[in-house]
Amino acid sequence: MPLNPRLVKESFSVVEPVAEKAAGYFYGRLFTQCPHMRGMFPPGMEVQRDRLFNALTRVVWMLDSPEGLASYLAQLGRDHRKYGVSPEHYGAVGSALLATIRHFAAEIWTDEIEAAWTEAYAMAAKIMIDAAAAETTPPWWLAEVTDHEPRTRDIAVLTLRPSQRLDFVPGQYVTVQTARWPRVWRRFSIANAPRPDGSLRLHVRAVPGGWVSTALVRHTRIGDQLLLGPPVGTMTPPETDRDLLCVAGGTGLAPLKAVIEHVIASGARPNIHLLFGVRRACDLYDIPDLARMEAAFPWLRVVPVVSDDPAYDGMRGRLPDVVERFHSWADHEAYVCGPPAMVNETVRRLQSSGVPLARIHRDPVQSEA
Ligand SMILES: NC(=O)C1=CN([C@@H]2O[C@H](COP(=O)(O)OP(=O)(O)OC[C@H]3O[C@@H](n4cnc5c(N)ncnc54)[C@H](O)[C@@H]3O)[C@@H](O)[C@H]2O)C=CC1
Description:
By secondary structure, this protein is α/β, with parallel strands linked by helices. 41% of the residues lie in helices and 18% in strands. The protein has helices at 5-15, 19-33, 46-61, 66-80, 87-104, 111-134, 211-218, 253-265, 287-296, 319-326, 340-352; strands at 141-150, 155-162, 173-177, 186-189, 200-205, 225-228, 244-249, 272-278, 300-306, 315-316, 333-337, 360-361. The strands form two sheets. Strands 4-3-6-1-2-5 form a six-stranded antiparallel sheet. 1,4-dihydronicotinamide adenine dinucleotide binds next to strand 4, strand 5, helix 8, strand 8 and helix 10. Its EC number is 1.14.12.17.
């Protein structure tokens, strides 16, 4: 039977408003049916629940764009190897998912909707299973912390050396697990373009209640080992030599720095504006490094922007406002990364000021605590 994206989307839109409940129901079904699968997940399931729905939402809304969907699902399949997922698990997940959607969309449920979900899930599972089976890189990497620089009270920049070669594209992120929190994986963007020594830099803010981020900022030392999942993400460098606008909110700077490093190393000479927004001047955690990049590449202009510090003697304001009043970006390729609300608003303003959506790069998946 052919895919029926419309029926899947319509029924999913009934479940979306009760996503949290639905995710709880889904895991309840899954673990009752397959108690041994509980051990594959961390003790606290809150982030996992969000993740399930973020991924599901993305898949459902991409059903009409098969190419983008296939590449997203393939990345997801490769990434799931680090949890020890094997093809048998997909059947159990599929039946728990179907039971969940059926339960929460009961009012509109029909045989056609059931068939549409069955078909869509079978297609998605096949892409994930095939991609995982075809992958030759490790499911996860051990990485040694070779440097740990506290930059502010809450932010540290870590340098890691993976024990095996880890290929990635600038702008991608990895998931990280610390010895302190087994089975808890959190995403952090790689903050550099690939280097000859294979090292990776991460920008980490310890957020309240953030298990992994707090462990990385406050309890991690040089010589410690971390686990890294496969690199994922689609916010990769531009394929044109158009001028670039990069809008970074806080540690959302990390992937944009990687993209800029890549563009500089490629030998292209576009003008690059990097607007680096923080709340207070003391949060400008990477200025010395950015100033070095600026000095070495005259086409790069770094503009620190501070939103909540009236005493700051430089550019002040909210990033979306500053972007809008700066000048026209209509001819630029734009990259936006940071807190989701900031990203959404900046993208909207760029669009309404004439930057086509196809030229605005963002990663719908944000990093977590
Ligand atoms: N660490 C990493 O590797 C990555 C982090 N991120 C995300 O970047 C964000 C960084 O957070 P923080 O450093 O705590 O940044 P923050 O909360 O201190 O804010 C940074 C900037 O965004 C602006 N901003 C915040 N909320 C806004 C809103 N609602 N509307 C308009 N502007 C707003 C602030 O004014 C400031 O200029 C997190 O959401 C994180 O998930 C994204 C990708 C990679």
